[in-house]
Amino acid sequence: MSDSLPPRSPLAPPAYVSPAKRIAALSGDPNFMTSMARGLAVINAFQERKRHLTIAQISHRTEIPRAAVRRCLYTLMKLGYATTDGRTYSLLPKVLTLGHAYLSSTPLAVSAQPYLDHLSEQLHEACNLATLEGDQVLYIARSAIPQRLISVDLSVGSRLPAYCTSMGRVLLAAMDDVELTDYLANAELQPKTSRTLATPEALWECLQQVRRQGWCMVDQELEQGLRSIAVPVFDSAGHVLAAMNVSTHAGRVPAADLERRILPVMLTASQELSSQLFSPI
Fold it and tell me: Across the strands, what pairs with 59?
């Protein structure tokens, strides 16, 4: 496999398709519930930095008519998933139950938690497990140390860009060349800090190194002062299923210490978790 980047696709990144248009494209299916799809779109309109939205803002974000947005919010409030101050709306903690069934039943999250807890206790650092969803990493398990808080507000269900995170790069490196070339041709690579690798060529070269060494360190590319190291978790066929990382503050833990002291412990934990997940019953 060549380490040089294949030519980029001449096609522009696909145009953004609003939730309303995606819903409309499925409206001809007699089994498709438009009202349910709209309700989910309204929930997804809320984000970490946009926790309080007006009906007009939600309608603009989703392109769903205001009257339909209003009915969705009314239903969510009646069921205890949302609230309002009279002008803006926000989600309530009950909305977390929508994802609880998945997180509590998936063997990956359940099996990984004791390993993350042990690593966090042993290393005195935050430990996380994530999978790839689109061009983002989705946090499915986490063990944090209260006295080691960092400014990035993370929890189970959090999403971060794959290209500038250690777990994201482990998962991207597991793609085949065709998938990876397509990702690099369409991903929105933006510099988060002065250190961020934000060109397809630089990222391609970095991911080749991740493939060769089997782990990834990201040093202050997502946020100044944040340093992390990640390793893969494998399925029974040897394919990368998820990524596990340890995140630290750059001023407290040198990069060399991450590789010398923390990486061997993480690789052992990853091997043990991979074996447990798919051991014969």
Answer: none
pLDDT digits over 27-57, tens only? Answer: 889 999 999 999 999 999 997 667 899 999 9
- Cβ neighbors of 195 (< 8 A, separation 6 or more) are 219, 220, 221
| Segment holding 205, helix H or strand E | helix 200-213
Q: Which amino acid is at 269?
A: A
Q: Give the CATH number of domain 106-277.
A: 3.30.450.40
pLDDT confidence of 106, banded at 50, 70, 90?
low
Tokens linked to 238: 């040897």
Are 123 and 139 in contact by the 8 Å Cβ rule? The answer is: no
Catalogue the long-range contacts made by 188-195 (C-beta closer than 8 Å, 24 or more residues apart): 188/13, 188/135, 189/163, 192/161, 192/164, 192/221, 192/222, 192/223, 193/220, 193/221, 193/222, 193/223, 193/224, 195/219, 195/220, 195/221
User: What's the token pair of residue 239?
Assistant: 């394919």
DSSP state of 146: G
pLDDT (tens digit per residue) in 137-164: 999 999 987 655 454 567 888 889 999 9
CATH 1.10.10.10 is the classification of domain 19-93: yes
